[in-house]
Amino acid sequence: VTPPDDCVKTRHAIRVFSAETTTGLLKACRVHKVTLTPLLEALVARALFTALPAGGSATQLNGSCPINLRPFMPEQKNAMGVFVASDEHNFKRESSDVWKEANRVGNSLTRTLDGMKRGKHFNTGMLRYVGSMHANLQGKLGKPRDGSFEVSNTGAIDGSGDPKGHWRISQLLF
């Protein structure tokens, strides 16, 4: 099946921030009582609204933030698998205060994580109910997407390595 010519194409971009820029962003986040992931989500939404025509139909965007489920599944520590859920956030064009939006997203992530800690159901593990992945994906061609964009979330990472110095994280992609 060939997608229609006017079908929206997925694009991705990898941006590398220097240690200096990252330190500055983290300091600004602390001042505004927000973490980096919600700020990045709010900035991506604002950048997309700036790039999209103001008179068009893009009055809101839906962002998605994946959440690592391994901290909630200690018995799966060494298991191979995709243990990921997500939290969705809606952005409106008229909401132009990036820090206010970042705070709202951060509060939503906190509520979702708190619910997960209490065993609240979350959106994962449903692929087993998809009869045919091929048919499922083909059925999405030409239709509106669920999400406008996604900002990955690593959570807090200690990249200093193991005590014996065998490894360390020098760069993180998220």
Structural class by sheet pairing and helices: alpha+beta
Helix content: 25-40%
Question: What strand line-up does the widest sheet have?
Answer: 2-1-3
Please give the radius of gyration in angstroms: 19 Å
The overall pLDDT average reads: 83
- Terminal Cα separation, in Å? 32 Å
Order of helices and strands: HHEEHHE
Shape: globular
Q: pLDDT below 50 for ≥5 consecutive residues: which ranges?
A: none
| Number of distinct helices | 4
SSE layout and pairing:
Blueprint: H1 19-31, H2 36-51, E1 60-68, E2 84-92, H3 98-117, H4 133-138, E3 149-150
Parallel strand pairs: 1-3
Antiparallel strand pairs: 1-2
Helix pairs in contact: 2-3
Q: What would you say this structure looks like, in words?
A:
Helix 2 packs across helix 3 (98-117). A 3-stranded mixed beta sheet has the order 2-1-3, covered by helices on one side. It contains 4 helices and 3 strands, in the order H-H-E-E-H-H-E. The two termini are 32 Å apart. It has helices at residues 19-31, 36-51, 98-117, 133-138, and strands spanning 60-68, 84-92, 149-150. Helix content is 32%, strand content 11%. The chain is α+β, with helices and mostly antiparallel strands. The model has no long low-confidence stretch (mean pLDDT 83). The longest helix is centred in the middle third of the chain and has 20 residues, at 98-117.
